[in-house]
Structures are given as C-alpha cells and as structure tokens.
Amino acid sequence: MSEALSALIEHLRGDLTLDRPERLRERVDALDRIERLSLYLSDTPDTLALSAGIAAQQSRLDAVNERLYRNLRDAIRRGDGANCLREWMPVAEHADTDTSIAQGEGYDHLDALLGGIAQLHEPADDVAALMPEMVFYQPTPARHIFDLIRRIAPGADDVVLDVGSGLGHVPLLVGACTSARCIGVELEPAYVASARAAAADLRLSRVSFIQADARAADLSQATVFYLYTPFTGGVLGEMLERIREQAQRRDIRLCSLGPCTQVLAAQRWLRAIDVELHSDRIAVFVPCGNDDPAF
Ligand SMILES: C[S@@+](CC[C@H](N)C(=O)[O-])C[C@H]1O[C@@H](n2cnc3c(N)ncnc32)[C@H](O)[C@@H]1O
C-alpha cells in the first residue's frame, strides 16, 4: 500500500496543473485517494519521509481549494455569484445524456465546493428526534441542485421553497446562482441557525429560513416547491394536499428528488415534464390545469 501511496505522491508532486483552480475535481479525488491509502500506513522509519511528502501535498491541494472557495465567497458577497458559480454547472447537453452528471446518489467535488463556500456546520448533538414519517437530514448532492437550477431557471418573480431545508444547501445555492427569492422551511432549530448564519455571511439577502413544521408553514409566496423526500406516508400526503391548495390559486412548479418522486408521479393533479422519471434525478412537475377534474 505504501508503494501505491509513494507513487501517488510522486505523481502529484509533478502535476503542476493541480494548482489551477478549475482542477477541483482532480484535487478532491487526489485528497480522497491519499486519505484512503493512508489508512494502511504503518509507523516505520521508511514511512516517516513519506508522511512528510503526504502532508506537503495535502496542504498544497487544500490551499488551492481554500483560495478558490474564498474567491467564490467574495464574488457571492459582491452579488456576482451567478456568473462565477455557473462556470461550475454541468454543461446542459452533457447533463441530459451523461447519467453521472445529474443522476445518482453519491457526493462529489461539487459538494466539496458548496461545503467550502457555505462553510455549513452540522450540529454534532442537540438535534431532536423526528416523528415517524419525517426523514432525517441528508443534503441534496450539489450536482442535482445545479441540475434543478438549469431545468427550472427561476427568475426574479420566483420564490423557491425548500420543504425540510436542513442546513440550507438548496436555498443557498439557488439564491447565489439566480435572482429568485429562496425560502427554507425546517423543523430542526439547530439546522435553521446554521443556514441563517451562512446566508448572512454570504450576504444573500433574498434567502431566508423559517423554523417550522412544514405542514403548518406559510406557503403563500412560493412558486416553486422542492422536496428531497423530507417525509413519507401520511405526512407527505398532508403536505401535498396543502401544496395542491396553493396550486389552485397561482402557477406553481413542484420539484423532487428521491423516493417521494414516485408519490408525486402518482398524483392525478400533477404531471411530470421534461425528462424521464428516476428517483435519483431531479423531477419537475406542474399541475394538470384547472380544466382537469383531478385538479
Ligand atoms: C432529506 S433531508 C433534505 C434536506 C434539504 N432539503 C436538502 O435537500 O439538502 C429532510 C429534511 O427535512 C426535515 N424535516 C422532516 N420533517 C419535517 C417537517 N415536518 N417540517 C420541516 N422539516 C422537516 C428534516 O429535519 C431534514 O432536515
């Protein structure tokens, strides 16, 4: 294992392209590989020299990443986030054909990017247990948020509401990349506090977070609802009924990811648009229309 690690460190040392900010994916992959291979490193005199090489490459790659995140944070604070972050958006024509771009459940370098920009802190404890049918926190992978932004292209008149927003990845990234207002509704106060701190730090004045049970929250502003399966069963049914009432008053869109997509697809008052439905890809639905009896 230490030969593989030596070879990797040697290779990284010689690869000067890794200092280019846009090579984030390669840096994140390299840091992951170093971490994985280091797990098997034992403490022998031979490995001491290697350890110094490992630490040097890790701090070099981390420093380039930190610089990139800092520049992007500054751009967002200046109101230039849309320009700078869109460079990271998977290219449209690839996203529709290359399933690794907008499909799948894993996390990648774009999550490192979002984490580095937003600097969100997941509270270690003090998180209340959820009631049955309410789903524990897991963030939407960043590439799906980029896919969401590309597909719904929210404008200044839109209000995007993330139902069960956790640490706020979706409202923060959508707010930084578009002129839409974004609202996160989340039950857990510690997540809301962290999300609010990130929005304030990035000066995203159009992004706000409400601490509430989503079933009781004010939905009257939203034009786009996003659900990364925040609940199941009867709780999801209740929420969908509340959203349907909103749909009877104005034009809305509903976007989903995860197992709840199947439940939305089964609603007679909704129809999916745009792409084939997969639970590991963002789905976009619109109400069928006032003339449809199911509505
Ligand atoms: C799967 S996570 C999704 C997080 C976030 N929407 C995202 O995509 O990054 C589900 C979130 O819904 C929250 N949640 C569950 N039941 C809720 C409820 N009744 N009202 C508000 N939030 C709720 C959980 O605390 C958790 O943070």
From TrEMBL:
<dbReference type="GO" id="GO:0008168">
    <property type="term" value="F:methyltransferase activity"/>
</dbReference>
<feature type="domain" description="Methyltransferase">
    <location>
        <begin position="160"/>
        <end position="224"/>
    </location>
</feature>
<dbReference type="InterPro" id="IPR041698">
    <property type="entry name" value="Methyltransf_25"/>
</dbReference>
<dbReference type="InterPro" id="IPR029063">
    <property type="entry name" value="SAM-dependent_MTases_sf"/>
</dbReference>
<dbReference type="Pfam" id="PF13649">
    <property type="entry name" value="Methyltransf_25"/>
</dbReference>
<protein>
    <submittedName>
        <fullName>Class I SAM-dependent methyltransferase</fullName>
    </submittedName>
</protein>
<keyword id="KW-0489">Methyltransferase</keyword>
<keyword id="KW-0808">Transferase</keyword>
<dbReference type="GO" id="GO:0032259">
    <property type="term" value="P:methylation"/>
</dbReference>
